[in-house]
Known about the structure:
By secondary structure, the chain is of the alpha+beta class.
Amino acid sequence: MLVRDVGEARLIELLSEVVDVEATDQPDAHRFPLRLGIGDDAAAWQGPATTMVATADALVEGVHFHLDRIDWPDLGWKALAVNLSDVAAMGCMPLYSTVTLGLRGDLPVDGIEAMYRGMAEISREFGGRVVGGDVVRSATMFIGVAMYGAAMPREGNGDTPNEPLLTRTAAAAGDVIAVTGSFGCSAGGLYSLATKLAKRPGNEATAHLVEAHNRPVPRVSAGIQLARRGVKTAIDISDGLVADLGKLCKASGVSAVVDADDLPVDDHLRQAFPDRWLPLALAGGEDYELLFTAAPALMAELHQALDVRTTTIGEVAEGPPQVTVLDENGAPIDVEHLRWDHFADDA
């Protein structure tokens, strides 16, 4: 059964049924209960008495995904994951999402339903439950997600705001730079898919990289913990470590120095790409890890307190906004030369 066979109204009914079934074991977003879901002119939920955040992102077929390289549930997972990562980078709790679909008539209805089940799966784990959206006809398939989140109360008492946000603007000279997780696996997975390496049987390393690309893990809990423990500056890594750290430096008016030897790089990436892992880690993008800065004493506490692995990779310095990456001998690496282009011709 294809999208053109059922039409817009019936497709919306089918997707609404998927959302309703999948949401039966999804509690309302903490203390902000849903009042109206799919089926009215708009969704409605009880508004929290706190700072709210909103973000939006879109995945376009042929640019951000290829249907012959990703399963439908994974596509739904990733469509929400990129927005969940943005909310996490603000130190907030994801609440609800609306989804706009641009669909071709020749797409399978069961595929679209499976995509929504992928959205429900990630929502159960991290938040951002789908409560509405729109469906339009489009020559190119796209998935547009708008997500809403809320700041959580700070731990303890003090004179600082009790509903803190992480931003890109508060990094200061002398801060330490740290990251969650590891880098380069998503880009390694993308390259494996684009060059057919992923179809070779028995390649555990490649399978791991493809999983990292298709099912990124948003660091929601870590983002909330950072904000509540006093961190002020963070960014999620979507465009690559060097590129996104550069954005943070520009917003804060500082410089950054990173030690390449300190980058957390997965053994699977080193195994699959022994001669290419460094540019993948520095500039591959779509890792959706968090990069954050803090004073050394606070950073030492964070490494012990967070429920995810964190690694110090450098420090913030005074100077014009730029990122310097040093090799094992302390010499600057040509970062521009290492910039990854996401295989622009093949991605």
